[in-house]
Amino acid sequence: MKPEKIRDFTDFQYNVFEEIKKIPKGQTISYKQLAEKIGRPRAYRAVANACGKNPEPGIIPCHRVVRSNGDIGGYSLKGGVNKKRKLLKTENKNYLG
DNA sequence: ACGAAACCCTGGG
DNA sequence: CCCAGGGTTTCGT
How far apart, in whole angstroms, are the C-alpha atoms of residue A80 and residue A97? Predict the structure, then answer.
């Protein structure tokens, strides 16, 4: 059956979003790094999904989350990776795009 | 460098 | 209850 939904997202996602929101401006981390932060180093997949769900767009800077290699990865929100690159460039000029 | 498999979570039928 | 997907990651060749 479906898991108990706290709000629009589960406990797992809640932790993910909290960590993402804690990401300092101009700073980017990988999905795996974030997964480790929430205590699920093997849940890098779910982390990416959580961002994809993004229950609160604009509040969750999922664009700050990139691949382990530092690559942009992707972007589910409007604008696509194009918007994501722009945001990363704006926040972190040192970002390699 | 490229290709394929793995692992964890969520949503729909 | 069962199946499939996803913005990744890692190993093997």
Answer: 14
Catalytic residue, chosen from A62, A65, A72, A88, is A62
- C1' (B1) to CA (A69) span, angstroms: 15
Q: Cβ–Cβ contacts within 10 Å for residue A67, how many?
A: 15
Whether A85 is in a domain gets the answer yes
B11: residue with closest CA to C1':
A2
What pTM does this model have? Answer: 0.90
CA A52 to C1' B13, in angstroms, rounded, equals 22
Q: Choose among A26, A25, A46: nearest CA to A36.
A: A46
**Which range of residues forms the domain containing residue A79?**
11-91
% of chain A exceeding 70 in pLDDT = 91
Nucleotide nearest to A52 (CA to C1'): C7
Tally of domains within chain A = 1
